[in-house]
Amino acid sequence: MRESIVTGEAAPGEEREFAGLRPGRFDDYIGQDRVLENLRIAVQAALERNEPLDHILLHGPPGLGKTTLAHVIAAEMGTEIVVTSGPALERAADLVGILTNLRHGAVLFIDEIHRLPRIVEEYLYPGMEDFGIDFVIDPGPHARSVRLELARFTVVGATTRAGLLTGPLRDRFGLSLHLEFYGVEDLARIVKRSSGILGVSVTPEASRTIALRSRGTPRIANRLLRRIRDFAQVARRDRIDELTSIEAMDISGVDEAGLDSLDRRYLTAVIRQYNGGPVGVSAIAATLNEERDTLIDMVEPFLLAEGFLNRTSRGRMATPKACRHMGFPEDGDDGRLPL
Ligand code: ADE
């Protein structure tokens, strides 16, 4: 993974580090109002009927709280949560082992569910639909089908790429909820909440400034807050005011729009190398020597949401806003010879 402060993706060990900042219940959760409303209704209805919750698919860019929500859902249902991920389930036996050990009503959280191998997915369908798995034993003339009954459980699937899910898998989720980038007010509230948990004093202006540079993503807001806390401690500032937060974020290479060095390299490449586009993402990835998936999952969603980038049938195009932000003329032609 690239070294960057503003990727939405969790760095190794970061999930554990942030665990204390995570909201544990619906009432602690800030933002995503529509998603929360849907979940509250589903949870209350299931509890009143004394039934396990329907399967839930959470989709949206990294760092917006899909894992956190899965834990909140389990806590609200008063059940255990078992956590796994698409790439971790390599063989059907891995999944079967987990399914047969689930207790009634348990939440099975499958992160990156779009990366589940197809053969594993085939076992998940009947598991989710009928709470049973059919095996063929003694293949050949004496083949018999044996059914393994499972406890009723709830799959909470998370994906950054709902479009990559197969139709049959998508159809098995009763609830499919999209997480949006957070607004500045919600992010400022999250920064305030996290600073309280971390025991640092942050002025309202600084919370807002941090929120503005967090590209709509709580994980990034919390990451910036930790870096600024380090800076303030070393600089012997007893509280984080606006100037302290700006100084610290400038050192981190995050600009006032929340863009980091990879975002800026991306936009510069589209504007300078490809005259503003249209250009395919594979070409951009090759130019930057980055993974195509990193650009699609981590870089482009925010640039698109903020109007720095357009996606057309012929490829990606930098917008006039991107040219202005990067200091190029708005037609993308800076009068220099191509690199
Ligand atoms: N920390 C990270 N995400 C949060 C959220 N949505 N609400 C409250 N605290 C958070």
Description:
There is one protein chain. This protein is of the alpha/beta class and 339 residues long. Helix content is 45%, strand content 13%. A five-stranded parallel β-sheet has the order 2-3-6-1-7, with helices on one face. Helix 4 runs parallel beside helix 5 and helix 9 packs across helix 10. The longest helix has 17 residues. Adenine binds next to helix 7.
Features:
five-stranded parallel β-sheet, about 15% strand, Helicase, Ruva Protein, domain 3, alpha/beta, Rossmann fold, globular, about 350 residues
List the helices and strands and how they pair.
Layout: H1 14-18, H2 33-49, E1 56-59, H3 66-77, E2 81-85, H4 92-100, E3 107-111, H5 118-130, E4 132-137, E5 144-149, E6 154-159, H6 167-171, E7 175-178, H7 184-198, H8 204-212, H9 218-234, H10 242-252, H11 261-273, H12 281-288, H13 292-305, E8 309-312, E9 315-318, H14 320-325
Parallel strand pairs: 1-6, 1-7, 2-3, 3-6
Antiparallel strand pairs: 4-5, 8-9
This protein binds adenine.
